[in-house]
Amino acid sequence: MKKLLSRIALVALSVAIVALAFVPAQAFAATNPKITLSGSYSGGKVKITATIRGNTGISTANFRLDYDRSVLKLDGYERGNALTSLALTTTGNEVATTEYRFLFDSNDGVCDKSDGVMLVITFSVVGDGDCRVNLSYRKNADVIALRGGKQVFVNPIVESAAVRPSADGGSTTVVTIPSDDEPLDGNTVTIIVAVAVIAACLIALLVII
Questions:
Q1: What is the pTM of this model?
Q2: Are 184 and 28 in contact (CB under 8 A)?
């Protein structure tokens, strides 16, 4: 009877651990802020608004602005009400051979946890066709927070925007493109692997018993 109870307990524990293997991925993904690009079109001008939500703290963020220069020409940008405690500098020029970057940086090492509009970017439509506009970054490299005196990489989920002329060549519209997936950071992957290994060991132990 004792042996049977031990087996039942081990089975229950194994099932619970396997189930928990899926929890960290969702928990960690939930801590990633989301940046959404939305926009409007009027009079040959496109305005793209970059909004951040779920910001748990950012001290440095280096975003690359990606778009088709044969369709859009960058006119300028304005800051919103988010990340205002970070200094903002830009690099690059409005030519096809260079990149345009927005660098948010903290001078005193303090993380900015504000949500809201980060940037409003204005373009002129100079060509025909679809054009994807995106803020990209290198995962586990370009967006950083300071927690407990240590640097922690932050991987925002980015929903980009697309400028699309109508099929009849008339008005242009701007639509938001949902992100394909939510990134997992290194800690999440490590925890999932560890839990999976523990579950496998318990199942093996059950078979042996």
A1: 0.70
A2: yes
